[in-house]
Amino acid sequence: MKFVMRADDFGYTKVFNAGTIKAIEEGLITTVDIMLDTIGTIDALETIKNYPWISVGWHGGHCWGKPVADPRLVSSLLNKEGRFKYWNNATLKNDVIYEEALIECRAQINRCIQILGKAPICTSFGQDNIYERARKQVCIEFGIHFDYMEKKDRVTKITSYPLDKYRKLDIYMPTQHDSVYLDLYADSPSERLKYNPVKYFIEDPDNLKNHKVSITAWHPGYLDEYIFNEFPKNHFHTARVVDISSMCSPVLKKWVETKKVELVNMNDVLLGVNEYQNHLKANDSTLYVGVI
Question: 158-177: b or e for each residue (b if 16 or more CB lie within 10 Å)?
Answer without folding.
Answer: eeeebeeebeebebbbbbbe
